[in-house]
Amino acid sequence: MNADDWKRSPLNLCNTALLFLAFISV
């Protein structure tokens, strides 16, 4: 993933963070 991807899809970064939190919370 590049910073450009985050600029294009800011939600992509949020979704990745949410998935990470959900994964470690299990």
UniProtKB/TrEMBL annotation:
The protein, known as: Uncharacterized protein
